[in-house]
Amino acid sequence: MTSDDADPGRGQATPSLGELGEFGLIERLAARLPAGPGTEVGIGDDAAVLAAPDGRVVATTDFLLEGRHFRRDWAGPGDIGHRAAVRSLADVAAMGARPTALLVAFAAPPGLPSSWALDLSAALAAEAARAGATVAGGDTASFDAVLLAVTGLGDLQGRAPVTRAGARAGDVLAVAGPLGRSAAGLALLEAGLREPAGLIRAHLRPMPPYDAGPEAARLGATALMDVSDGLLADLGHIADASHVAFDIKSGALDTRPLVAAAGALGHRDPLEWLLTGGEDHSLVATFPPGTPLTSRWQVIGEAGPGHGVLVDGRAHTGPEGWQHFR
Amino acid sequence: MTSDDADPGRGQATPSLGELGEFGLIERLAARLPAGPGTEVGIGDDAAVLAAPDGRVVATTDFLLEGRHFRRDWAGPGDIGHRAAVRSLADVAAMGARPTALLVAFAAPPGLPSSWALDLSAALAAEAARAGATVAGGDTASFDAVLLAVTGLGDLQGRAPVTRAGARAGDVLAVAGPLGRSAAGLALLEAGLREPAGLIRAHLRPMPPYDAGPEAARLGATALMDVSDGLLADLGHIADASHVAFDIKSGALDTRPLVAAAGALGHRDPLEWLLTGGEDHSLVATFPPGTPLTSRWQVIGEAGPGHGVLVDGRAHTGPEGWQHFR
């Protein structure tokens, strides 16, 4: 949670990225990134060669850009590496797949201490390991801002992928993992606050339940997605792709973890964070009615005929989540 | 070869990226990007699902960043899309694999005309098609510079990957594709020149012989790499990984296509471009002595015991190719 400038006892004691050079950096990164069991060729060649056991590979790529997705005065290298991993790992899980590997493209100013890059890499690898994956390759470049583009690969283990297009009228709508906590943490940071610490941490280090993705697939989920742009916005994509409407029961959304933050910020409605806050990367799924769910799946509504997303039977007015380019 | 500003009859007639929004842009991009035969899930879901026929996948990711790898006043969207595709496709071919799919992360200023992004995407898809691949997914973001991070995936078709580590003393060193032409073209652009047009084009639209990668594998290549940072620098990586030395015969390197450019720039030695110029993304390989090669493989030297890279038996003095972070 500290910027590189504020990081005590590190920083200028290590060579800068410019002093280390591209190949020096890659050598040090590779030495700390163990190859996974499915890695036939890892870091240091033109490309990685990775196992794809069922003859298919799930693949996704996501940016994490300084000034757009993070600020170095709010987030330290560990936070940034963690979040870069989360975005791609959650997308893999959201197909019902097990994450297997990440490829990391990393650009940074040459004056940055190399310890900063190594801390970022360590956090990225740690979150990948939590999901069962390893860092298998990447690219480095010099740029005047810190840029990350992380590719996530995954294994469907013989199952069909769970897309956004399979929800049917009558299906149960359920979520695994928290909602609105990252958005509340970001609002606190924007207001210059550092507490409640749990919400700050939820923004800087979201912890998606990756294994809920394959679990949803095994339970028979008809549609699955991670909440990256906000519940209403993301459910809108499932509604469009599946040709159904959703009705969210607001009473099923737990506002309690957000009440203190809403109070600290004066005028905020916690429900708004739950409905429109993205970046928790929790998993939202539809299941046929009567599907016996495990306890981590919280039923929050249902699918019906029509289109769009309602809250308690009515259109929700207010911001509808994150829109890129706007 | 025109910037977006100079592009006649386009530009402000189309909505800007900001006006179109993220999902409007993705919808228009997806409509122009046909799914490949191996695409089970393509653009528009959390991740793509792609065939990996032999139970493995080759995977690489590369940045192409404005101000670092290209300038918008020298390169138009078609050039930039083309080069973004080349970097990853050549890395896949350099493992001996057939490229199958690209994932494209694309960031740009919101004021950019959407036609610019569509032209970039069309060129990216066209170069992918030349290599046998399709664009299967990606990410978009708003940023104050144009940023691309392209992931390339490929299929080894049951063969072993050809790494950098297999060259042996006595092996023949050969190259498929041109050397030094991109560097000569860049030097011309830096000097404000636009001719010889063939060299300018070699910089803006390099055309690697992707199918020479699988061909090299079938011919029994012991090591294989694409020349992205310069022949000396890249051969240095093979020498290090394989524990051999290389001796390049300068007389085997064809300076003729570069003589006019060297003359136009006054004081340049064409051999320097051939030895240290990167970004042609030609393929360099080692083969056991006596391997019958096809005509596109030009023998330029041999591997021996020792380490490092010599030219005509001597150490080469001068710049050693591109070093990131320096």
3D architecture notes:
- Two copies of one chain form a homodimer.
- In chain A, the strands form three sheets. A seven-stranded mixed β-sheet of chain A has the order 8-10-7-11-9-12-13.
- In chain A, helix 1 (17-31) runs parallel beside helix 3 and helix 4 (181-190) packs parallel to helix 8.
- The first copy, chain A, has helices at 17-31, 77-93, 114-130, 181-190, 197-204, 212-219, 231-242, 256-264, 270-276; strands at 39-41, 48-51, 56-65, 98-108, 134-142, 147-155, 172-176, 223-226, 245-248, 283-287, 297-304, 308-311, 314-315.
- The model of chain A is unreliable at 1-12 and 320-324 (pLDDT under 50).
- Chain A has 326 residues and is an alpha+beta fold.
- The interface between A and B is large, with 71 and 71 residues.
- Strand 3 (56-65) of chain A pairs antiparallel with strand 2 (48-51) of chain B, so a sheet runs across the interface.
> Going across the major beta sheet of chain A, what is the strand order?
8-10-7-11-9-12-13
Mean pLDDT across every amino acid position of chain A: 93
The total of helices of chain A stands at 9
Specify which chain pair forms the largest interface: A-B, 71 and 71 residues
Low-confidence stretches of chain A: 1-12, 320-324
Largest sheet of chain A at a glance? 7 strands, mixed
Percentage of residues in strands of chain A = 15-25%
The geometry of chain A reads as globular
Question: SSE order of chain A, as H and E?
Answer: HEEEHEHEEEHHHEHEHHEEEE
Radius of gyration of chain A equals 20 Å
Count of extended strands of chain A? 13
Assembly state here?
A: homodimer
Q: Quote the distance from N terminus to C terminus of chain A.
A: 28 Å
What share of the residues of chain A lie within helices?
Answer: 25-40%
Q: Based on helices, strands and strand pairing, what is the structural class of chain A? A: alpha+beta
